[in-house]
């Protein structure tokens, strides 16, 4: 069992420096996000997460969501916790005020969501999927659909889901075969099976609103023939209340490695040819709605990497402070808490530095999303959108890869106890393992980065970011405290620049070489960008220390942490330049049937 | 569910080149290990592993070992499989012929054990622990104890265990408090609790022979006051058959992340003050017996990393060959099996190259153990012992770290299916996670390497190994096919040499700096040494290709694989030189109570 306390100081610094929340409040739409409000929101979210959600995390793991003849029962306490969350008004925090949301910055929403995901990753998936549905409806739904569904989805009274995957259509969404037929009343009839549907069925809300990708019979093949439909579990009656049951059901739950309390459903639509759906957006343009759903969801899944690593880090620290074992190496003194051993310090500092770099990178991306949506200046919006687009796959993949790695370190710090389920350490490790997979595997993210994002706007956005990093490194070079960061960050961004130029310069007939370098390029990108946003915080910490404001211990530790990241974590990533640019020859030296033993 | 086939060709090449099995057969003790015999043994072991043990792997995971009032029942089929293993004469393969063993090389035994561990890691732990007990008894037991116990332990009719850990004494074995009192008849009375005892109780064998570390009441404190006792579950009667029940019991099993079919027992000794034990070796010299038990066990746990990664690799290949998804990047062609995607190729080639490097390194260590025990020349024995001692912690830690990483890659290759327990991918990932922990955590291994092993014999052994690697790299430099390996291997061994010189040169007052660099030093060591033994195989493959002997596809693929490892896996490890030698200042920048949020 592990406790959780929201890392409020670090969240606040990341919002200040990486997300630029003070700048955001100068945007009219976010003028209410004053420093006091931000503190109050973080504080209250941290309490709900720590007191209500975190204690249910182990319960959820051991009980799991239970399926019985189409009905899914959530573990004990989950309904009450969800109700508390809804009644606190948390679900609408960042959604449009037009339909009952509070319109606060997405960056702040990320900090709040981080607390839910740290406390109880499985439960936090319900609002996460709902968020995707709200985004898709907000941007692509008819006024009628918005009026009927958005208020309840935004309040959290109803939950939304995303129905994409089919057995033969995972990463290749264009291969889906779920059918939609036009009905005479302007609605559609949906028929098909979807798998891996997160919170496809549960007992937390009065209705469940499925957004389902399907194909009209006269649609073109592939991704150009996909439409998006809103398919509610209960058809709303004349008062907008859950009425007649729609022809859809949950045929079963998956038996998974982790996030046991998150029901992963097989969904059957239209077994009786009576599953009613409404078109969202235009026919055959469903991919646009899907990308709207997935884009923010990808950032939020990256955030899960941050969150689960934070939870594991807190558990590792608590254990290392308590567990007494052996004298320090080279000492004949008494046994000490293992946090005193350099081996354990390496692990804890690596966890701390990496989590804080991940958080900074993720919140920075959130800030870019906010500016892209709401900045009054069109150029600023375009720049911010470019940065958000560029960083989204990096956040998703790098943070979730690190989530796996750091939850594994927590197990290792626990020694034998780390392998025992009751310690709680295995659950974080098991839960973390889904995040590199869903919402587009990390491989898909890497291909998105080298394929689409490097080429976007002639590479303007990555060039701008790398120039910012170089300028920053130049500005702190030679500084007594921050100088060593400059050295490693310069090497890192140099490697990143070389790799990006090489990848972007590959012709289409070198597509294999590009794809071969994609994954380590994303790792290099994440490490350098994360190190950069962390170092920005270190400079701010230095400024505050010089000015005598803020908590001096926290600020001094931030500088040490950023230096540790630069000195210990950047060099192996920087060395990926060679592997990235080596080409694909050896990748294809073996025939497909020659890999087997 | 995943199938398994023993990778016989690669095992054989690793035995030939890395372990030098042909040289071993020139040692009188091993003269029977002819090439034909080796092939026959591997072939038969592979069959037993694939046909009998592998199909039980998922059964063992889902049923687990079951405790009921002190009795432990193994999952369905395990007893039959174990009997088949014993009746086949497998258990005595490498043990002394004096008590019924076959006296074959340990290196060959490793190849055979690898098949068991790949097929069914949980079941393979029973013989593994037994092996430790046999080693300890063989080297430290009285003639009487040997005569009574060794034949049955060597045949596998009885099983042996290692009882070290107590709640307050994990890595710090000197903190143990289990008591031993001298009885008038020359035996001892044991009293205390041990935890995490692998196969401490089960229904596979007629008796279980516990080797228990305990402390006499007049013993010195710490590790100098530990004695080793043989404590059988049933006291042998006058015919050497299991007689009266000894005063010990299994008080419960742990609920673990993985290896569910391996009963991890809490053992109670002497609840009724009547637990009879016999001294093994001398009083207060129990640590020597423990090190005898653990040394080979450490190599064998490293081998588990190889084995579980091999199993995961095979599953990943099979899935990637079958699963059709999307066209190749940059192509407008049809969807292809995902093994055709460069992203997946990177993962598969990384898995293949790393597993083969791990296997080569592990078998090389096995060959060194054999020469150390049996070579007629004393100088050769000493050199071999030095190499074995040096490589043992590297094998244990590097291979098990990689085992975790590569089983995680298998999950990722599976996409959504990788997170579903029925696919079998999660089990390998869960099972693999114990290996970096038990038999001395990987942190303990890293400290053993930088603390004891670098200093041993004035560093003669690491200097000799690094010189061999440099010489080899020099010899293949400029070679058309192998030249690129030389480049990366030279850089790697240069970094390794610098790091070792720096670590070995640290004074005792720089102990924190040494400990701070220990873990990445071990990673660098493992990667370079693994890459070296893999490259030796590539050179041999080239020779055989030139000579027109052997399977040309296998040999050409071996060269491609070794090149892939050099080009893709060595550079990030080489870049660890900086982090290793950076010192411990930042590790201790935070006070212990400043890590928490």
Name the descriptors.
alpha+beta; five-stranded mixed β-barrel; 3 domains; homodimer; Butyryl-CoA Dehydrogenase, subunit A, domain 2; 12 strands; two-stranded antiparallel sheet; Butyryl-Coa Dehydrogenase, subunit A, domain 1; globular; 597 residues
How does this structure look, described?
The structure is a homodimer of 597-residue chains. With 597 residues, chain A is α+β, with helices and mostly antiparallel strands. In chain A, 55% of the residues lie in helices and 11% in strands. Chain A has 18 helices and twelve strands. The first copy, chain A, has helices at residues 8-18, 21-25, 35-53, 57-63, 78-87, 106-119, 121-140, 143-155, 286-322, 342-374, 378-413, 425-432, 442-453, 460-476, 483-505, 511-547, 552-574, 577-580, and strands at residues 66-68, 71-73, 159-163, 179-182, 188-198, 208-216, 227-232, 234-236, 242-245, 248-253, 264-269, 276-280. In chain A, the strands form three sheets. Chain A has a five-stranded mixed barrel. The first copy, chain A, has a two-stranded antiparallel ribbon with strand order 1-2. The first copy, chain A, has a two-stranded antiparallel sheet with strand order 8-9. In chain A, strand 8 and strand 9 form a beta hairpin. In chain A, helix 9 (286-322) runs antiparallel to helix 12. The radius of gyration of chain A is 24 Å and the shape is globular. The mean pLDDT of chain A is 97. At the A-B interface, helix 1, helix 9, helix 10, helix 11 and helix 12 of A face helix 1, helix 9, helix 10, helix 11 and helix 12 of B.
